[in-house]
Design a protein that fits this description.
The complex is a heterodimer of chains A (about 350) and B (about 240).
Chain A lengths: L1 H30 L8 H15 L3 H4 L3 H9 L8 H13 L7 E3 L4 E3 L2 H4 L7 H8 L5 E3 L2 E6 L2 E6 L8 H10 L5 E5 L8 H8 L7 E8 L12 E5 L10 E5 L6 H9 L5 E5 L9 E5 L5 E5 L1 E4 L14 E2 L4 H5 L4 H9 L2
Parallel strand pairs in A: 5-6, 6-9, 9-10, 10-14
Antiparallel strand pairs in A: 1-2, 1-12, 3-4, 4-5, 7-8, 7-13, 11-12
Chain B lengths: L1 H24 L5 E17 L7 E15 L3 E15 L7 E17 L6 E17 L8 E18 L4 E17 L3 E6 L3 E13 L4 E14 L5 E15 L1
Antiparallel strand pairs in B: 1-2, 1-11, 2-3, 3-4, 4-5, 5-6, 6-7, 7-8, 7-9, 9-10, 10-11
The chains are: A alpha/beta (about 350), B mainly beta (about 240).
Amino acid sequence: MLTLRNYLTHTISATLVCILLCMVAGCEKALQLKEPSTYPTAVFDELWTEMDQHYSLFPYKGVDWDSARTQFRSRIHDDMTKTTLFNVLADMLATLKDGHITLISDVDTFTYIDFYTSYPLNFNYKNVVNNYLQNEYSASGPIIYKIQSGTGYLYYKSFADNSTDQQIDKVLTDMAQTKGLIIDVRSNTGGLSQNADRLFQRFATEKTLVKYEMGKNAPAHTAFQDPQPYYLSPAGQHYSNPVVVLTNRACFSACNDFVLYMSQLPNVKLFGDQTGGGGGIPKNYILSNGWILQYTSTVTLSPSRQPVEGGIQPTVNVGISSLDEANGKDPILEAAFQSLQ
Amino acid sequence: MKKLTAFIFLFMLYVSAWSQQQAVLSQQQARWEVSASAQAAKLSNIDKEFSSLPFSALLPGGGISIKYLGEHFTHGLQASYIGGSVQTSSHPAYRQDQRYLNIDYTGLYFLGTPDAAWRGGAGLTLQTLYDERTYPELINHNNTYDFAASLGLAGSITHSFNNIWSLSDQLRLPFVAWLAEPDDGRHVGSFSSFTRIKNALSINWNVSMHNKLSLTYDWDYYRIAGQRDVRQACHRMELAYHLIF
């Protein structure tokens, strides 16, 4: 018995040592925690593949990404300068016409902005402040506001500027006696969605399904998870009178979401131009040469499950002509004010 | 399902053998061992959700453990934590704040008597890991984690030189795991989707009847394959004090 036990002990010991040596040698090799190549061809392939597998809006962009690779990779060679590489990558990314796409490098930064620069801006902040607010207004955090002839005006420049519950409640407490409220989010290019959520919650009357968010679950362009519903509940100082939200093409991303949410309330109308879109959550990826790529990684759907990447249409389409702007006029603001009288 | 059945069979066999051993042990003296350790770890990882660049650094850590040492059976519960910032060597401006927590149970059946020069043992291990990573330089989507609770096999070999010094090695290999990740949700993974190898090589010094010191080189590697591809290697040196009673 002892002989058998000794035999087993030595056999198990020898086997374990062999397994251990094989595992350590084999797995260190398989680990591949090496620095990746930073040659231009490798960086191009890495960026193209990252977009190919994780970018969420291919089904809505009508871009043949394989053709883009063929077209732009022919301009890549390993002795090209960083600036030239950057320009080729930016050109390829621009074909997707997505304002969430950004490439940040040590030579330049690319962000797609044609989604609003190709259209009339329909907003002039100086005209609003000088001619309509007459340079007299209150401020609470990032929000400026004024009450005129019993109608409130609220301007939120950017959802990248954080607001607190107290700051928003201060504004709406002051607005409590107004007969209507204008919320101006023109040229608000987005920021933190929490700021958009917080503002919307003052107008919601009940827990509301405001959107669906849909992420990818496989590399194929059409491989998505089930849409995930997103609800917001009322919070803070409630405002229930008629509301007009002013929009333009530069209302993007979190601002686009805010307009989507508000458009579902019965006491809200949208005036101006359509919003700029940005229907999805952006994410970042660090390329092997250290450049940061930002792109859209989810698809935002309306409660009726329609994509909102193309923007939200206004209830009343109003624009500002060059002549109006030159004369200091803001027909969108005037139309909103009239509708609330 | 076959793996689960095999595991349940092995586990029942193991519990049965252990129960019988308790009767024998009632006439012998079992020991308990508690320990605390200070650790230094070279931690490297690649999370392709965020970058193909490897992030690594030398980080401090600590651990505690409790062990039951029978004549043939040992049961050990270990917890360890490593935390700090790791960087890319090529672009040090990018950093990742990382927290890596392990809690492992290992039960082993040893052949040979405790005073034998060579001892080999095999048994089962239940391992859990939680690895959280945050990228402060990125916006939105800049935090992620891996959680894995796995069942596997463990093997150990010990060589005692003179009852004062000994050299031991313990290898743990999970064969089925329950995984949780922020984007991919929760799912069961086998060796192809969750690979983990943990090996600890120790030099032990029995200072006295009730005191022991050990120096351990622990190599801990895991990979989660799928829509996200995460790989991490942790080379850890651990100096531990053991109190035996």
